Protein backbone atom coordinates (compact mmCIF):
# COMPACT_ATOMS: atom_id res chain seq x y z
CA UNK A 1 0.00 0.00 0.00
CA UNK A 2 2.94 2.31 0.67
CA UNK A 3 4.11 1.76 -2.92
CA UNK A 4 0.68 2.69 -4.25
CA UNK A 5 0.62 5.95 -2.33
CA UNK A 6 4.01 6.93 -3.67
CA UNK A 7 3.09 6.17 -7.26
CA UNK A 8 -0.25 7.97 -6.94
CA UNK A 9 1.40 11.03 -5.43
CA UNK A 10 4.07 10.99 -8.14
CA UNK A 11 1.38 10.72 -10.81
CA UNK A 12 -0.47 13.62 -9.20
CA UNK A 13 2.73 15.70 -9.13
CA UNK A 14 3.48 14.98 -12.79
CA UNK A 15 -0.08 15.82 -13.74
CA UNK A 16 0.03 19.12 -11.86
CA UNK A 17 3.40 19.99 -13.42
CA UNK A 18 2.03 19.31 -16.89
CA UNK A 19 -1.06 21.37 -16.18
CA UNK A 20 1.13 24.19 -14.91
CA UNK A 21 3.24 24.11 -18.09
CA UNK A 22 0.17 24.14 -20.32
CA UNK A 23 -1.33 26.99 -18.30
CA UNK A 24 1.90 28.94 -18.52
CA UNK A 25 2.21 28.44 -22.27
CA UNK A 26 -1.38 29.36 -22.98
CA UNK A 27 -1.91 32.22 -20.55
CA UNK A 28 1.47 33.85 -20.02
CA UNK A 29 1.47 36.38 -22.81
CA UNK A 30 -1.63 35.42 -24.67
CA UNK A 31 -1.95 34.33 -28.27
CA UNK A 32 -1.83 37.87 -29.61
CA UNK A 33 1.62 38.57 -28.21
CA UNK A 34 2.89 35.24 -29.59
CA UNK A 35 1.61 36.13 -33.04
CA UNK A 36 3.14 39.58 -32.67
CA UNK A 37 6.46 38.04 -31.62
CA UNK A 38 6.36 35.68 -34.60
CA UNK A 39 5.66 38.58 -36.94
CA UNK A 40 8.55 40.56 -35.49
CA UNK A 41 10.89 37.60 -35.93
CA UNK A 42 9.62 37.19 -39.50
CA UNK A 43 10.28 40.86 -40.22
CA UNK A 44 13.84 40.50 -38.91
CA UNK A 45 14.30 37.41 -41.12
CA UNK A 46 13.02 39.34 -44.14
CA UNK A 47 15.38 42.25 -43.46
CA UNK A 48 18.26 39.80 -43.02
CA UNK A 49 17.46 38.16 -46.36
CA UNK A 50 17.25 41.50 -48.17
CA UNK A 51 20.52 42.86 -46.77
CA UNK A 52 22.25 39.53 -47.32
CA UNK A 53 21.14 39.33 -50.94
CA UNK A 54 22.18 42.94 -51.44
CA UNK A 55 25.69 42.41 -50.09
CA UNK A 56 26.11 39.15 -52.00
CA UNK A 57 25.03 40.91 -55.19
CA UNK A 58 27.32 43.96 -55.04
CA UNK A 59 30.50 42.85 -53.30
CA UNK A 60 31.48 39.98 -55.62
CA UNK A 61 31.07 42.29 -58.63
CA UNK A 62 34.19 44.19 -57.54
CA UNK A 63 36.48 41.18 -57.27
CA UNK A 64 38.35 39.62 -60.16
CA UNK A 65 39.30 36.01 -59.54
CA UNK A 66 43.09 35.61 -59.51
CA UNK A 67 43.89 39.27 -60.27
CA UNK A 68 44.43 41.43 -57.20
CA UNK A 69 45.47 44.46 -59.27
CA UNK A 70 42.21 44.41 -61.24
CA UNK A 71 40.26 44.07 -57.98
CA UNK A 72 42.14 47.07 -56.56
CA UNK A 73 41.37 49.08 -59.70
CA UNK A 74 37.67 48.19 -59.42
CA UNK A 75 37.60 49.31 -55.80
CA UNK A 76 39.45 52.55 -56.59
CA UNK A 77 37.23 53.33 -59.57
CA UNK A 78 33.99 52.72 -57.68
CA UNK A 79 34.32 52.54 -53.89
CA UNK A 80 30.60 53.20 -53.32
CA UNK A 81 29.48 49.56 -53.79
CA UNK A 82 32.07 48.41 -51.25
CA UNK A 83 30.99 51.08 -48.78
CA UNK A 84 27.32 50.17 -49.24
CA UNK A 85 28.25 46.51 -48.84
CA UNK A 86 30.01 47.30 -45.57
CA UNK A 87 26.90 49.09 -44.31
CA UNK A 88 24.74 46.15 -45.44
CA UNK A 89 26.96 43.65 -43.60
CA UNK A 90 26.91 45.75 -40.42
CA UNK A 91 23.13 45.86 -40.72
CA UNK A 92 23.11 42.07 -41.11
CA UNK A 93 25.11 41.71 -37.90
CA UNK A 94 22.74 43.91 -35.91
CA UNK A 95 19.68 42.21 -37.41
CA UNK A 96 21.16 38.80 -36.56
CA UNK A 97 21.37 39.82 -32.91
CA UNK A 98 17.82 41.18 -32.89
CA UNK A 99 16.51 38.09 -34.71
CA UNK A 100 18.18 35.74 -32.23
CA UNK A 101 16.66 37.66 -29.32
CA UNK A 102 13.20 37.71 -30.93
CA UNK A 103 13.35 33.97 -31.58
CA UNK A 104 14.56 33.37 -28.04
CA UNK A 105 11.57 35.23 -26.62
CA UNK A 106 9.29 33.27 -28.91
CA UNK A 107 10.77 29.81 -28.25
CA UNK A 108 12.02 29.94 -24.65
CA UNK A 109 8.81 28.40 -23.30
CA UNK A 110 9.04 25.48 -25.71
CA UNK A 111 12.62 24.49 -24.86
CA UNK A 112 14.77 26.94 -22.97
CA UNK A 113 18.02 25.02 -23.54
CA UNK A 114 17.60 24.92 -27.30
CA UNK A 115 16.55 28.58 -27.33
CA UNK A 116 19.75 29.53 -25.49
CA UNK A 117 21.79 27.40 -27.90
CA UNK A 118 20.13 29.20 -30.80
CA UNK A 119 21.14 32.57 -29.34
CA UNK A 120 24.71 31.37 -28.86
CA UNK A 121 25.03 30.05 -32.40
CA UNK A 122 22.88 32.70 -34.07
CA UNK A 123 24.29 35.79 -32.43
CA UNK A 124 27.33 35.21 -30.26
CA UNK A 125 29.21 33.05 -32.79
CA UNK A 126 28.13 34.50 -36.13
CA UNK A 127 28.21 38.22 -35.38
CA UNK A 128 31.98 38.40 -34.70
CA UNK A 129 32.48 36.69 -38.07
CA UNK A 130 30.45 39.48 -39.70
CA UNK A 131 32.63 42.07 -37.98
CA UNK A 132 35.90 40.41 -39.02
CA UNK A 133 34.65 40.33 -42.60
CA UNK A 134 33.73 44.01 -42.44
CA UNK A 135 37.14 44.79 -40.94
CA UNK A 136 38.94 43.18 -43.88
CA UNK A 137 36.78 45.07 -46.37
CA UNK A 138 37.39 48.33 -44.55
CA UNK A 139 41.13 47.63 -44.44
CA UNK A 140 41.15 47.14 -48.21
CA UNK A 141 39.20 50.35 -48.69
CA UNK A 142 41.46 52.33 -46.35
CA UNK A 143 44.65 50.93 -47.86
CA UNK A 144 43.59 51.61 -51.43
CA UNK A 145 42.11 54.99 -50.56
CA UNK A 146 45.52 56.51 -49.86
CA UNK A 147 45.08 56.90 -46.13
CA UNK A 148 47.50 59.14 -44.26
CA UNK A 149 49.21 56.20 -42.56
CA UNK A 150 50.66 55.15 -45.92
CA UNK A 151 52.90 58.21 -45.96
CA UNK A 152 55.61 56.25 -44.11
CA UNK A 153 56.06 54.10 -47.22
CA UNK A 154 57.84 55.27 -50.35
CA UNK A 155 55.81 55.58 -53.55
CA UNK A 156 57.11 52.31 -55.06
CA UNK A 157 56.26 50.48 -51.81
CA UNK A 158 52.69 51.80 -51.92
CA UNK A 159 52.08 50.43 -55.40
Total strand segments: 0
User: Which assembly state applies to the chains in this document?
Assistant: single chain
Q: In this structure, how is the largest beta sheet organized?
A: none
Q: Give me the secondary-structure category.
A: mainly alpha
* Rg result: 26 Å
Q: What are the low-pLDDT stretches, counting only 5+ consecutive residues below 50?
A: none
What proportion of the residues form beta strands (DSSP E)? under 5%
| Euclidean distance between termini CA atoms | 91 Å
Tally of DSSP helical segments: 6
Give the SSE layout.
Elements: H1 2-27, H2 30-58, H3 68-77, H4 80-107, H5 112-144, H6 155-158
Overview of this protein structure:
This protein has about 160 residues and is mostly helical. The chain has one domain. About 80% of the residues lie in helices and about 0% in strands. It has six helices and no strands. α4 packs antiparallel against α5 (about 110-145). The longest helix has about 35 residues, at about 110-145. It is elongated.
Defining key terms:
single chain; 159 residues; mainly alpha; 0% strand; elongated
Task: Write a brief structural summary.
The protein is an all-alpha fold and 159 residues long. The protein has one domain. It has helices spanning 2-27, 30-58, 68-77, 80-107, 112-144, 155-158.
Amino acid sequence: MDFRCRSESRLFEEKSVNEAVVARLSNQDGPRSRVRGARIAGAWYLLLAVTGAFSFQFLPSLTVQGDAAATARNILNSPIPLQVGIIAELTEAVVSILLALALYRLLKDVNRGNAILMVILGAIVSVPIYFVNVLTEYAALATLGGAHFLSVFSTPQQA
